[in-house]
Amino acid sequence: MKMYSAKRIEIVIEAPMESRLTQALNDAGVTGFTVLPVLGGGGRSGNWTREGRVSSAGGMVTIVCIIREELLENVIDNAFAIVEKHIGVISMTDCNVLRAERF
Fold first, then answer.
1. 55 pLDDT above the threshold of 60
2. DSSP string spanning 56-97?
3. Residue 22 CA to chain centroid, in angstroms?
């Protein structure tokens, strides 16, 4: 079975910024992503949880995408333009995928 090198980008950001961030990813050439709700966490401002919130407006989401390495710079630049003004973090790891034509 042949494996192909790729990059996995994970971005945690405030839920109201989801559509703006996903548009920025699309503009950078990302062909697919997954959005996951974040149930809670902790950081410089302390711990937090979604428990007791009436809406998702104060929550966070994680957006995960797997891309070809040649897209990395544009994806990071576009994502950071959104994340730098809000609460959030971007991480990148190397990964291997089957079916490289999907990325």
1. no
2. STT-EEEEEEEE-GGGHHHHHHHHHHHHTTSSEEEEEEEEEE
3. 8
